[in-house]
Amino acid sequence: MANFAIKMESVYKKFRRGEVHDSLRDLVPSIFGKVFRRTSSLDMKKQEFWALQDVSFEVDKGEAFGIIGHNGAGKSTMLKILSRIMKPTTGELIVQGRLSALIEVSAGFHPDLTGRENIYLNGTILGMTRREIGDKLDAIIDFSGLQEFIDTPVKRYSSGMYARLGFSVAAHVEPEIMLVDEVLSVGDYVFQQKCIARMNEVISGGATVLFVSHNLRAVAELCQRSLLLKNGKVQAIGKTNEIITKYMESTRNINEEDPRKILQITSVAMRDFNGPQVQFQLGDKAWLDITVRGVQPCEKFAVCIYINDENYYNLFNTSSERLGHGPYNIRTGETLRISFELLIGMAQGTYHMGVLLFRYDTNVAFDRWEPAVTFYVGTSIDGSRGIVPCNPKVVSEEIAGEMH
Amino acid sequence: MLSNIRELMKYRELLIMFTWRDIKIKYKQSVLGLAWAVLMPSFIVLAGVLVRVGYAHVAGRPLLITDLAGVAVKSIPWAFFVSAVRFSGNSLISNTALVTKIYFPKEIFPIASIASSFFDLIIASLVLAVLLFFGKIGVSMLILWVPVLLFVLVILVAGISMYMAAASLFYRDVKYILEVLLTFGIFFTPVFFNSSMLGIYGRYLKWNPLTSVLEGLEDVIVFQKYPETSWLLYSFLIGMFLLLSGYVFFKRAEPNFAERI
Fold it and tell me: Rounded to the nearest 5 degrees, what angle is found at the Cα of A82, between the Cα atoms of A79 and A88?
């Protein structure tokens, strides 16, 4: 037996765009149509497209492997093929071991059943036996933090509670191979950390984990190796760090010219002292280079930059004017190049950089690009987690007991 | 085929779970609770009684207690047939989230639907048994035929359900066609009447595989005589053919479920 858990070999998956006949009433005329008009089958061919093309990779036993890619890159199709819900058009998938998918774990919930009943139902769907669930029931309820509501029908739950209960069940399945979707994007921060901790536990317990996500932070924390999917093809396979850099690079692009605008941001790039970079460490210096082109003459504008977190919550913003530079005047065809220096003061996470061209006295926004650059900040040196570095130190410690 | 069945056996716990879920939800949602299982068939029985009263009036003969008992005995399995086929026919569509997200043998859905409808049949039968006792309908050893007849009925239901569940997923109007067939099927099935009432045309009704099962039940419970075994064998063979071919059809279609739903 080879030492791999999952092996995909030149997997192709074809989909059909547009409408498919889904009623007998449409089917009958279309059959007649096909008989009399030979062209219709050709039209069908045109609408086909490949969701996955020549995808091959291997995941070793006990490895945590990440699959990242933009929306529409084929991640969901990949997941469906891995979990055997869909068959590849051609190619082969070999899975060695009991595979359990944590794809939308609350899919099996029934709104009218109570939390407890749903734990049994969902646990069984995920492949546990009733006895196993019975043994772990307390642990599951505990993990979800929903003790008080466990005998309430889940239709009365908030969506967060729903998802928490779903993941709690899924987290207690003990598969040999675990397929993880975006389940980590649910719940509050504390719960997310709990989930990551639990997944680390599963990994260190020897299970193979396949993590499909665009939550780069989670991928970086969990997976040693990753695969980058782009337009259904494997772009790269390698160390997660390198793959994340490639992913970030592929997000950077240059704006096409838009004649309706007065001013246009034509390029935004981030670099460190070595050159283009989108991965940083806490305390690094970063430079942001922006080019603005005057489509029409424009006066007194400022360049504003801002940083948002993954949830597009604004963390930081400033502008050339607030920093005492400008405002700028520009004529048609002229370009303004401006560079900002920044200190990366955030802890681990994925952040989006936005750029805005704004005139303060008339309150007019000329152009906005968001996210112009997505960048990633690696693990804090002191091992603490979260988005704000508080530079923690233990300054006193003491164990006290009662005196007799 | 064998490997499919072996896999299904591996997932039997899930099958039990879904059956339990369907039963639980049905009785939880309705205020009537268990009365639900009795209410549906009693309505059919009531309609049957009306038909039989009308028939007795026109024929100018008195209405016998066995007539009513016969209608009741046939109405309950008919109610089971209708609800099981309808429920399992829609079982894949109503579980879209699970069909598209998680892998397991999907025939679990129609089978669980049939099982939970069978639970209703049992509840209604218990009530009926009490009524028959008060109606002074006796019991004989022939009652042992009942499980055999119900077995044939379940085979038939399962065969039809396999086709319907898969077909309604691919073609949305199958559901409406099925609804029409189930509504008017009662006119082509001797529930309110007996095939013998149609005279020489009665035998055409026997081609309906449900006829021998329902009349067989009436024979062994109400009239205490043997069912027509040759027609029963015919129903059984039809049922087995539907079930086996339906299962193959279902399994062939299964890899496309997630894409087409």
Answer: 100
Tens-digit pLDDT profile for residues A328-376: 888 888 888 999 999 988 877 888 888 988 888 888 888 888 778 888 8
pLDDT at residue A191 is higher than 90: no
SS3 per-residue string spanning B118-139: HHHHHHHHHHHHHHHHHCCCCC
The pLDDT-based confidence of A41 (bands split at 50, 70, 90) is very low
Q: How far is B30 from chain A (nearest CA, A)?
A: 11
Q: A interface mutation test: which of B102, B163, B257, B260 has the most A CBs within 10 A?
A: B102
Tell me which H or E stretch contains A93: strand A90-95
Q: How far apart are CA A216 and CA A185, in angstroms?
A: 11
Whole-number Å distance between alpha carbons of B94 and B194: 36
pLDDT digits (tens, 9 = 90+) for B36-66: 778 888 888 899 989 989 988 888 888 888 8
ipTM computed for the complex: 0.84
Where b means 16+ CB within 10 Å and e means fewer, A326-363 reads bbbebeeeeebebebebebebbbbbbbbbbbbbbeeee
Backbone φ, ψ for residue A306 (5° rounding): -150, 155
Give the domain ranges of chain B.
Answer: 7-260
Residues 99-118 of A with CB under 8 A from B: 101, 103-104, 107-108, 110, 112-113, 117
Closest approach of B248 to chain A, Cα-based (Å): 18
